[in-house]
Amino acid sequence: MDARSLTKRIRLLLILFALGLLISGLTAFPLVWEVNLLKRIVDGAHGLTSLIPGLSDWITTVHTGITETFRLYPFMAYGTDWLGFAHIVIAIAFWGPIRDPVRNIWVIEFGMIACVLLIPLALIFGPIRGIPFGWTLVDCSFGVVGIIPLWLARRRTRRMMEAQSAQATWQNAERGSDISL
Questions:
Q1: What percent of the chain has pLDDT over 90?
Q2: 58, CA 20 to 30 Å: which among 38, 45, 143, 179?
Q3: Contact 139/122 with Cβ under 8 angstroms?
């Protein structure tokens, strides 16, 4: 695979990952609207609630918790605003490797580390915070799914680095043979 198509594939993977972060961050702002919408959908989807027992009860609990907390203590939403902001800022950080993956491979590796750390965080704090195990697994899936494009991007970036290194070695060897003539 030539450098141009390798770069395109890396960029596509990183853009998809950054878009996921961006969308995730933007959804942190309208939580009350989202939980109201989710409650209406789940309440109207009787087939879904029979397939996933306890879903309706959990969504009702989340709906009550968020709407009552934000109604009585609106400043609590500020914490989720910061969560959304953090996701957006991290998405922006991926602009570096999108532009130059070789030079910014550390950002890709940082993202991979974050994906791995997400799993113990969810498994430890989910039960402490009273999150149902199934929902904790959904949270863990973000780390599992998120690491896939990053791993592929890192693997392809390493391939680019090796090709660039081989090319530089070849060019240096050529220059050395020119000098000795």
A1: 77
A2: 143
A3: yes
Tell which wins on pLDDT, 20 or 49.
20
Residue 129, SS3 per DSSP: coil
Residue count (the chain): 181
Q: What is the pTM of this model?
A: 0.85
The alpha helices in the chain, defined as continuous H runs, are: 3-26, 31-44, 46-51, 55-72, 77-93, 95-99, 105-128, 133-180
Residue with tokens 């532009």: 99
- Distance separating alpha carbons of residues 120 and 1, to the nearest angstrom: 37
Mean pLDDT of 102-110: 97
Q: What is the torsional sign of CA 153, 98, 109, 170? A: positive
Residue 87 token pair: 């996701």
Does residue 179 surpass a pLDDT of 60? Answer: no
Tokens 């580390």 correspond to what residue? 113
Q: From residue 133, how far is each of 45, 54, 107, 124, 129 by CA, in Å?
A: 22, 12, 31, 11, 11
Tokens standing for 1? 């695979």
Q: What is d(CA 41, CA 48) in angstroms, rounded to the nearest whole number?
A: 10
Q: Distance between CA 36 and CA 41 in Å, rounded? A: 9
